[in-house]
Amino acid sequence: MASTKWVLFIMVSAVIAAQARAWKASCEDPYYGSCYGIAHTCPPGCPRICEVDCKLCKPICACDKPGAVCQDPRFIGGDGIMFYFHGKKDRDFCLVSDPGLHINGHFIGKTKTGGLKRDFTWVQSIGVRFGSHQLYLGAKKVSIWNNTQDQLILILNGQTVVLPIRKGAGWEDPLSRVKITRVQNAYNAVLLQVGDIFSLTARVVPITAEESRVHGYEITTEDCFAHLEMNFKFFELSPQVTGVLGQTYSAGYKSPVKVGVAMPVMGGEDKFAVSHLFDTNCKVGRFGGELESRLQGSEGFSPGVRCASGNGAGQGIVCRR
Fold first, then answer.
1. Based on the domain organization, do 188 and 48 belong to the same domain?
2. Tell me, what DSSP letter sits at residue 220?
3. SS3 of residue 226 by DSSP
4. Around Cβ 191, how many Cβ atoms within 10 Å?
5. Which of 32, 282, 283, 306 could form a disulfide bond with 54, CB atoms 3.0-4.6 angstroms apart?
6. Binning pLDDT at 50, 70 and 90, where does residue 308 land?
7. Average pLDDT rounded to a whole number, residues 21-39
8. Nearest to 228 by CA among 130, 301, 139
9. Does 30 lie in the same domain as 153?
């Protein structure tokens, strides 16, 4: 029975790989009329995930741009320097903390075999606080990946956001100034904008059989560890911004990682750890909710309500007083 499951996994993964090789991206900005809507095949360096530089009208690897959070997890800081932050599986860490914006990431993963100390980890979901609002974006737990099934969960202030599965389909909340649009092939990829605070392109992706083989992840048919790959753009941060990613945008920041090594690692799990996905109690936290004056008339969760991912697998949000 076990061998039969493994053969099925290999066959399904081969189909997925074939689909991935054909993935395309197009310019999403109608301002660039001569490039807008034209499909480009993703480059060899990122065959599954890319975006189009509308000005140059060419596909580029989204995970190589400043503000990227991808893979295991691999960050490109605001200073352009690449580093890894592994965190720990089934824990939450502060990615960005500023007086008006706080973003945490929930890490999933597997314990390495062979006596290695750290876990394999990926960012399964994020919890965003701005003003009095709370936004959840996450990947569902998936066994066998299918490119034509949507595995993305979006929840704003406790209400699930339902987006038609159609490229360009949009949803907007005028109170929080959150706007969400489906991009790329419509499944599992959205552009999220929060007023003039930040924007985020997020994609749900699996660990493929090839990635598992190359890196020794030992992924089975029980869980393909669907996770987020993200590109952040921040429009207004204070000079004191912190967090795993946020600190790289702060005034006078100098990266402590060893540039030039194969895997430069950012430590400091103790500084960035938070109790729950929407908590702001990391040691370097800055959040104070100061954006309320810019989000006039908005209402978020009631005071005293705390929320977290209910089972660590992204199946929903549990809130309690």
1. no
2. B
3. coil
4. 18
5. 32
6. very low
7. 84
8. 139
9. no
Verify that 280 and 188 share a domain, yes or no.
yes
Question: Are residues 114 and 180 both part of a single domain?
Answer: yes
- As a whole number of angstroms, the distance between CA 158 and CA 270 comes to 29
Residue 231 tokens read as 């590109």
Q: Is 95 helix (H, G, I), strand (E, B) or coil?
A: strand
Distance CA 301, CA 105 (A): 19
Q: Is the pTM of this model over 0.70?
A: yes
Whole-angstrom CA distances from 98 to 210, 239, 247, 284, 315 are: 38, 9, 10, 10, 28
Burial of 147 (0-12, 13-18, 19+ CB in 10 A): middle
Q: Give the pLDDT of residue 85.
A: 96
Phi, psi (degrees; rounded to nearest 5) at 176: -90, -10
Query: 170 φ, ψ to 5°?
Result: -130, 165
> Is position 17 within any domain?
no
Amino acid at 21: R
Task: Give the tokens for residue 59.
Answer: 């596909």
Q: What is the pLDDT of residue 124?
A: 98
| CB-CB contact of 182 with 189 (8 Å) | yes
CA nearest to 248, candidates 6, 99, 69: 69
Q: Which domain holds residue 79?
A: 64-320
Tokens of 189: 């990829």
